[in-house]
Amino acid sequence: VGHAVLAINGAEVNGRFTADGKDVLEFLSNPANYPVSIRFGRHRLSSNEKLMLASMFHSLFAIGSQLSPEVGSSGIEMLETDTFKLHCFQTLTGIKFVVLADPRQAGIDALLRKIYEIYSDFALKNPFYSLEMPIRCELFDQNLKLALEVAEKAGPFGPGS
What's the rounded Cα separation, in Å, for the pair 109 and 89? Predict the structure, then answer.
């Protein structure tokens, strides 16, 4: 419940169809297509849902930095629950990178620094990118996916645990 098919044999799935227009249910009902690799996950958020969650986190981050007993606190760095950990990396310019991960996942700090490096290389150096706008750069997307796949393959008890 709450999960959806995200990819079949590496091809992205959007709703009921793959990126190349194949019907997922028809593909899965054909025995000739097996063995098959299916990636499950949470459904993708719309742009409005992403903006709403980001503004909610920004408010919590500000409240956390004001309520902290530590003078000059930078805000929330990690929020831990029994089912996930929320990690936040704030750059010197105030940009926040947020990652939700399994509580046992190791190496998230390194992943956040890698995401910042990818952002610096492919978004900030892109003359067509405007600050505080969605990043629409294929190289950024490709490198971000690669970094996430490497982190995912490291597993919940990867290096640094």
Answer: 8
Give the residue among 119, 102, 115, 117 at the shortest CA–CA distance from 154. 102
Q: What is the pTM of this model?
A: 0.67
For 81-90, how does the pLDDT look when each residue is reduced to its tens digit (9 = 90+)?
Answer: 898 899 999 8
pLDDT < 50 regions, the chain: 158-161
Pick the CATH number of 3-42 from 1.20.120.1460, 2.30.42.40, 3.40.1280.10, 3.30.70.100: 2.30.42.40
Q: Is 132 left (phi over 0), alpha (psi -120 to 50) or beta?
A: left
